Amino acid sequence: MKKNIRHLQQTDLPVESTPESDKTQKTVQENGRRSFLQKAGLGGLSLGGMMMLPIEDTIAHTTSKVNRNSNPSELKITDMRIAQYGNVPLLKIYTNQGIHGLGDVRDGGDKRYALMLKSRILGENPCNIEKIFKKIEQFGGHGRQGGGVSGVEMALWDLAGKAYGVPLYQLMGGKFRDKVRIYVDTPTMKDPDEFAEKMKERVDQGFSLLKMDIGIGLIKDIEDTLTNAEPWQPLRGWTDRDVMSYAQTPHQFTHIQISQKGLERMVEYAAKAREKVGYEIPLAIDHFGHMGYNEMIKLAEAFGPYNIAWLEDLIPWQNTDQWKRITEAITTPTLTGEDTYHKKNFKDLIENRAVDIVHPDPGSAGGYLQTKKIGDYAEEFEIGMAVHHAASPVSFMGTVHAIAATYNFIGLEHHSVDNPWWEDLVTGIDKPLVKDGYVKVPEAPGIGLELNEDEVKRRLKDGEEFFAPTDDWNELRSWDRTWS
Length: 484
Description:
- By secondary structure, this protein is of the alpha/beta class.
- The chain has helices at residues 2-11, 25-41, 55-62, 112-115, 118-121, 129-136, 147-164, 168-171, 192-204, 251-254, 260-277, 293-303, 320-329, 347-351, 362-365, 368-380, 393-404, 453-459; strands at residues 77-85, 88-95, 100-104, 179-186, 210-213, 226-227, 257-258, 283-286, 311-312, 334-336, 357-358, 384-387, 409-414, 426-427, 434-435, 438-440, 450-451.
- Strands 4, 5, 8, 9, 10, 11, 12, 13, 15 and 16 form a ten-stranded mixed beta sheet that branches. A three-stranded antiparallel beta sheet has the order 1-2-3. It has a two-stranded antiparallel sheet with strand order 6-7.
- Helix 9 (192-204) runs parallel beside helix 11 (260-277) and helix 12 (293-303) packs parallel to helix 13.
- The longest helix is centred in the first third of the chain and has 18 residues, at 147-164.
C-alpha cells in the first residue's frame, strides 16, 4: 500500500504548464482519482475492509493526505510576469506543475527591479527559497530598490506553501496569534477639527491603533512658524527628482527650524485628535518633515503631553548616532525602518538600541522571512516590531502570515482603508479582510488567496497588460559574483 501511494505522489502530475494553460485543482483531483483506480484498485492492491465502502469514499479517504498539486522535489520555475495597477506591480511566478506564486514589487517601485531577476531564477526549484534569496539578494537596495528581490521572495513563499499544502505561517515555524492587529494610517487634513473627526471615524470603524500624518507642510503658509523654509518650497515635494530639492535633501542638511508658534500649531492636531478619541487608543505620528534631530527633539517634547504611541521616521534611518541621541533625549517611543533593506542593515539600530521599535516593510526589507528575522533579532534586544505596508492585498495577507509567526509584533499598517475596491483585487478568502481592527490569519495553503483577474484588469495602469510575456528578460547576460 505504502509503495503504491508513494508512486502516485511522484507521477500523478500535469505534464506541462504555461501561464496560458494553468491546470485547475479540479482537473488534478480527477486525474488523481483515475490514476489511483488504475494503479491501486484495479491493479491488485488490497484495500481490505475498506473496499466494502463505496469506491468514491474509499479513494477519498485513502488519498486524503496526498498532495495532488505538485511534487515539490521536481518543481521548477518556468516564467515570471508582471501586472501593474496604480503604483503597485503585481508579480506572478509560474512553474512546470500548474501552481504559481504571487507577490508585489513595493508600492512606487519599478517593475524592472523584479524583471531583471527573472533570468537568475528560471529553472530553480521555488521551494529552495533561501538558496534563491542568496542568489539574488545582492540586487536589492534600500527603499523601492528592495522591491524586486522582496517581490520574488514573497511569490516563492506563496508557491512553497501551495506545493506542500500548508499556510505560509506554518513554514515559518507556526503562529503566535490567530489574528493580527492593524494600525490604520490617516492622511493629513489642513483643518485640525476635520482631522480629529477623521480619527474618530477610524475608531468607529473598529480600529484600536491609529497613526496620523502631521508635518511642517501643514504650517508652511503660516507666518513665523518656520525658519529657513523659503529655499525649500514646496515643502512636500515627494515627486521632485532634482537631487537638490527638499525631497531629495537629508533632514540634517536643510537647516529648517520650527518656532514656538509652529510647535503650537502642529501640536494642535494631536490635541484635537485626543479630544475626539480619548487616551485609551494608541496614537502614533508620522511625516514631520525634513528637519535635523534637534528640531525633532523639540517636536517630541511638545507632543509629550498627548501620550504618543511612537514618532515615526523623524530622520533618515541610516543616522544611527542621531537616532540614539533622539531616543535617549525623549520619553516618547521612536520608530524607523520602512526603507531599510535586509536584516544586516537593521543591526546597528538594534544593537545600539537607537530606536524603541523597528519598522520594516516586507516590500523593501527582502520579503517575509527577512521581516521575521528582523523581528526575531530585535526581540533579542528587547525591542518590539511594527510593520509598514502600503501595497496590494497580496503582500498584505502574506505579511499577516509572517507577523503571526513573529513574537514581538505590535501592529501592521493598513494604508488602503479609504479604497473600497482594494479588497476586490483578491478572491478565495473571507471578507472583509480587516474586521474590528484585526485580520484573521488564513489557513489555506500559501498566502491563502488568489487574484480577482477581472478586477485587476479593470485597475491596470494605463499602458500595462495583464501578465504579458516577459521573454526579453529570460537570458542571463552578466557574471554576478562580487568577489574573486
